[in-house]
Amino acid sequence: MYTRCAIFEGQITPGREDEFFRLVEERLLPLWKQMPHATAVRVLRGERRDADAPPIAMMQEIDYPSLDAIDEALSSPIRTKARAVTEEIVKLFDGRFYHIVYRRQAEG
Q1: Residue 95 has pLDDT above 90, yes or no
Q2: Burial code of 34-47, b = ≥16 C-beta within 10 A, e = fewer?
């Protein structure tokens, strides 16, 4: 099992946090759930962090059965649509977002 994470490092425009997450839930989450081979989608909202931790406002995680499945999802028309919506929503975000793919090593 592999998880592709989008990490939103930075700050949502002060006072517009609820709007940002509402737009993510209403406009992006449905697209992310349509990604080919996606088995689970999670959106995580930062609530607390260590004093020396980077300011991670949000993380998005999508589980896939294989690296090939991720590659197929990334080349799909759904990703193109999601990317366009993301570009609109990040106007409420000051920072950067990037992706990391993890392989599930163990569960407890």
Answers
A1: yes
A2: bbebbeebeeeeee
